[in-house]
């Protein structure tokens, strides 16, 4: 049945049903990015926590910190006059103003989006994202995140987990909840692919033996160490680590599980009346690419090309989502995942929480005091 257009609604807005009103395109956009930014903040916190522990057992951890920067910077530039070590890389991924994927930046934009769509989320959900943002900002302002870094990172991870649990328990399981879960699962799947692309080539020592430290650390970066040991019940092997994180159908952080769940969420939107089948078909094709990849594509020099193809296809799925459900139809051309959509960039620029926050010193030699936040 045709649905009359209402002023302010996009032509691609989900049509109204008998049970719930249609969802504004801008509201769907905000909910989708709330899910992505909370997942991204949790991912960065987990990476930093594992890297900080892993480098203690290495004679030289500079390569690991460079990989950390590559995983968490997207299109941001690491300051050229900063040393690449634990102290300065941690600053870069926690609160550096020029890094859109820093923990504080992600939580700030997620909170701004949540505040803009208060009517579409539960009060408990708003309280959680607001409390998490305020706690993280307080720790950054006071420097507590440096003196108690593990506790700080644990609070970020647990806060993000609590957010998604509250969303499942207090929101209607309609289009709004679907967009939050879609953003979360797509972000998580892309993060796993990027992590494997960066780390997979260093899972074997020069003598051909498995690098047990890096294999175990890679699993921990996906919260999968215990799950791997339970699933295989055998010593850790690089090939099995890659297979587990890419193709395991029961582990909720494997690329296959995440992309498959994102495809199911997109398919649910189609069943509820959204125009077009582009997003769910594109995501389903990415899922099939991962699920049916031959073993030879997941080993040696061919692995990098396979992961690059998977990242490109995931980026195409993001574009399909934007064209189908959101008002904006152009995205930053950053492979695999743009750090900010245009709407979120504008919100961050206008947010007083980021304006003037922790102006970063230009040289490590002059870092003696932390200026107060205005």
Features:
disordered C terminus; disordered N terminus; 374 residues; 2 domains; mainly alpha
Characterization of this structure:
The chain has helices spanning 25-54, 62-72, 86-94, 103-116, 123-142, 144-147, 149-170, 175-199, 212-221, 225-232, 238-247, 255-271, 278-291, 302-325, 342-350. It folds into two domains: 24-170 and 339-359, no CATH class; 174-327, no CATH class. The protein is mainly α and 374 residues long. 43% of the residues are buried. Helix content is 61%, strand content 0%. Mean pLDDT is 83; it is low at 1-21 and 329-374. It has 15 helices and no strands.
Q: How are the SSEs placed, and which strands pair?
A:
Blueprint: H1 25-54, H2 62-72, H3 86-94, H4 103-116, H5 123-142, H6 144-147, H7 149-170, H8 175-199, H9 212-221, H10 225-232, H11 238-247, H12 255-271, H13 278-291, H14 302-325, H15 342-350
């Amino acid at each position: 049945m045709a649905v009359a257009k209402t002023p302010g609604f996009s032509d691609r807005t989900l049509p109204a049903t008998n049970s719930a009103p249609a969802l504004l395109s801008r509201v769907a956009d905000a909910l989708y990015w709330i899910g992505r930014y909370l997942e991204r903040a949790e991912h960065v916190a987990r990476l930093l926590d594992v890297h900080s522990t892993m480098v203690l057992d290495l004679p030289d951890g500079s390569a690991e910190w460079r990989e950390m920067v590559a995983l968490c910077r997207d299109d941001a530039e690491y300051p050229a006059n900063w040393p690449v070590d634990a102290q300065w890389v941690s600053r870069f991924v926690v609160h550096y103003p020029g890094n859109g994927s820093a923990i504080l930046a992600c939580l700030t934009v997620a909170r701004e989006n949540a505040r803009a769509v208060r009517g579409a989320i539960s009060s408990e959900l708003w309280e959680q994202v607001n409390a998490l943002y305020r706690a993280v900002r307080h720790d950054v302002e006071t420097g507590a995140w440096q003196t108690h870094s593990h506790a700080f990172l644990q609070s970020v991870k647990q806060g993000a987990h609590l957010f998604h649990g509250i969303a499942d328990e207090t929101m209607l399981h309609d289009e709004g909840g679907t967009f939050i879960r879609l953003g979360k699962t797509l972000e998580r799947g892309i993060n796993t692919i990027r992590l494997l692309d960066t780390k997979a080539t260093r899972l074997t020592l020069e003598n051909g033996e498995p690098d047990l430290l890096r294999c175990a650390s890679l699993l921990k970066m996906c919260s999968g160490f215990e799950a791997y040991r339970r699933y295989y019940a055998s010593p850790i092997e690089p090939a099995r680590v890659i297979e587990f994180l890419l193709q395991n159908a029961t582990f909720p952080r494997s690329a296959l599980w995440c992309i498959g769940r994102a495809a199911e969420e997109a398919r649910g939107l189609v069943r509820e009346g959204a125009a077009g089948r582009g997003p769910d078909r594109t995501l389903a094709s990415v899922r099939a690419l991962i699920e049916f990849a031959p073993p030879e594509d997941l080993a040696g020099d061919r692995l990098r090309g396979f992961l690059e193809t998977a990242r490109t296809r995931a980026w195409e799925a993001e574009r399909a989502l934007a064209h189908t459900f959101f008002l904006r139809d152009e995205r930053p051309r950053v492979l695999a995942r743009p750090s900010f959509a245009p709407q979120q960039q504008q919100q961050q620029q206008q947010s007083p929480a980021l304006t003037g926050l922790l102006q970063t010193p230009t040289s490590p030699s002059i870092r003696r005091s932390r200026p107060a936040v205005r």
